[in-house]
Amino acid sequence: MQTSQDTTPVLVIGGSLVGLSTALFLAWRGVPTVLVEKHRASAAHPRAIGFTELTLEHFRTVGIADQIPQVAPDLRLRRVTVESLGGAWGEETPWTPGQAEPDKGAASPCTGAAIAQDVLEPILRRAAAERGADLRLGVEMLSFEPQDDRVVVRTRDRSGGDECEIQCAYLIAADGADSPVREQLGIARSGVGHLRVLRSVLFRCEAAEHLLNGDVQQFQIEQPGFSAFLTHYPDGRWVLMFADDAERDASELAASIRRALGRDLEFEILATGRWEMAGRIADRYSLGRVFLAGDAAHQLPPTRGGFGANTGIDDAWNLAWKLQMVLASQAGEGLLETYAQERQPIGWLRHHQTFARPDYSRWVGQAPQTELYGAQALELGQLVRSAAVIGAGPELPPAADPVVWAGQPGVRAPHVWVSRDGARISTHDLLGRGFMLLAEPSDWGEAAAAASMALGVAVQWVRPGVDVIFPADATFERTFGVSPPGACLVRPDGVVGWRSQRLSDARSGALTTALATVLARPNVKR
After folding, report:
1. Domain carrying residue 472
2. Distance between CA atoms of 6 and 8, rounded to whole angstroms?
3. Cβ contacts of residue 54 below 8 Å, gap of 6+?
4. Where is this region: Disordered (predicted)?
């Protein structure tokens, strides 16, 4: 056995969906990153399958969305109560009772994806490695020691036994709901807590594909003496979930699958699983130089809204640009505090939305009392409040339709198809790398140059009507909620950080002040 030493700005523990996305986003931003994952491949039993428009927007920005087949704009993930897949079908259970969901593709350049987790993860691994991330698979974390100016982590190669001491500036724990990192830090969790333990079986049955009807992909099986849940993967695989923790042998599993299918079809059992239905949100999302992401921060059951995996990927997107700017000395350490300020309320929002809905409210003694928001509001219209957002007051709701927000600070910048150099692009294709200022008057261009000079941070000035042409029915002013002399500052993660309605702000140095506030650099002179 050999022991080596290594250093890296960021070390990610956990190489599933959230860990891989974190490594990809950081590497794309030019941050050297090491990822440690104790397994060498994806789990045999895939978990997540639905990935939202917002997640696909992140993947589009880093250049991999074209590798992920997206769903049709009018697709809805519907659930029906049935006797069996091939038997009588009953009523549909809506995800958000009383609300009709608009077609995808109107408020986003993406439509989301229905892809199994074990199919998506290899795409993320390859993309992260191609962009420079150091992925160390089959390597486990033995211990970690937070210090004032670093975190020291000991790892071991599980095949050869070689150990390595890695010193990192920041540690990101994407190591799952049972996170050893979170447990060692002593961070407690709150929420509805443990509800029950369920078993499942993964099987392949391509012959059952013809029994599907449109976009109904999930089935609550109800028969005398038999209750289970059946869901479909788009590659011929299915998962049957039992409502108990009973262990079943191969013959019992096969008999249950036949009951669920309701037809004598050939199938192949691939794997079994066991998982906990629970709702827990970490009381802290960070401590010192250690950050929690994904299930380590928020444990949520599988939902039609994809609240678990998609929320974790959005955690990674939020944290990556902040780490980049702090490591480059372009932002103060206070910017990293806004990660918890922005993401923990989102975790609680998803928690309450999950357990207030029919899918899970029946398992909770006292369901959370909360207004239900539609999928589009939750994904594309969630609001973040922190010191890195100017103008997102406590009077605002936690989510709303993106059309209603119209460029509200704290919300993802609106999507509109615009023309640039004769090509049709999304406003989101302008975002991602750094700060962007959208404004028409030339005084704002001078203000952007002055802010860049004062802070050493590039601010790209995009001039509607000159650099990009907005459509007549979705003008810049209407879409971003500004007056003709106004301006909108968008952060590197695509969230509106500040907005002005006055041309005098361009001349007074207000942009420099706003940018310094967002970057936690309050002492910068205008």
Report:
1. 412-518
2. 7
3. 108, 310, 314, 379, 380, 412
4. 88-108
Q: Alpha-carbon torsion 328, 331, 334, 336, what sign?
A: negative
Residues 178 and 60 in one domain: yes
Antiparallel, parallel or unpaired: β 435-439 and 459-462: parallel
Domain-located, residue 133:
yes
175 found inside a domain: yes
Which residues fall within 8 angstroms of residue 481, CB to CB, at 6 or more apart? 405, 406, 407, 408, 488, 499
Query: How far, CA to CA in Å, does 161 sit from each of 1, 74, 155, 407?
Result: 6, 51, 10, 53
Place of tokens 């000395």: 329
What is the Cα–Cα distance from 305 to 321, expressed in whole angstroms? 25
Which is it for strands 496-500 and 487-490: parallel, antiparallel or unpaired? antiparallel
C-alpha 438/C-alpha 465 separation (Å) is: 11
- Residue 86 CB neighbours (<10 A): 16
Please state, in angstroms and as integers, the Cα–Cα distance from residue 349 to each residue in 57, 308, 329, 342, 413, following that order. 21, 12, 33, 11, 20
Global pTM exceeds 0.85: yes
Same domain as 318, residue 442: no
Q: How far is CA 375 from the centre of its chain?
A: 14
Return the amino acid letter for 203.
F
List, for residues 190-236, the tens digit of each pLDDT value: 999 999 999 999 999 999 988 887 777 889 999 999 999 999 888 88
Domain assignment present for residue 43? The answer is yes
CATH of the domain at 23: 3.50.50.60
Class of residue 276 by CB neighbours under 10 A (exposed 0-12, middle 13-18, buried 19+)? middle
Q: How far is CA 47 from CA 43, 115, 185, 200, 241, in A?
A: 9, 10, 27, 11, 12
Residue 234 lies in a domain: no
Residue that finishes a domain, picked among 318, 333, 348:
333
Q: Which of 422, 393, 399, 425 is nearest to 412 (CA)?
A: 399
What is the distance between the alpha carbons of residues 346 and 382, in angstroms, rounded to a whole number?
8
User: Treating both helix axes as pointing N-terminal to C-terminal, what angle do 117-130 and 17-28 enclose, rounded to 10 degrees?
Assistant: 30
Side-chain half-sphere of 177: how many Cα atoms within 13 Å?
16
Tokens representing residue 200 in the block: 């499942």
- Same domain, yes or no: 118 and 31: yes
Three-state secondary structure call for residue 460: strand
Whether residue 329 is found in the same domain as residue 418: no
154 and 283 share a domain?
Answer: yes
Task: Check whether residue 417 and residue 284 sit in a common domain.
Answer: no
The neighbour count for residue 242, using CB atoms within 10 Å, is 18
pLDDT tens per residue across span 142-164:
999 999 999 999 999 999 889 99
- Do both 427 and 310 map to the same domain? no
CATH of residue 507: 3.40.30.120
Residue 68's DSSP bridge partners are none
- What's the whole-number average pLDDT of the chain? 93
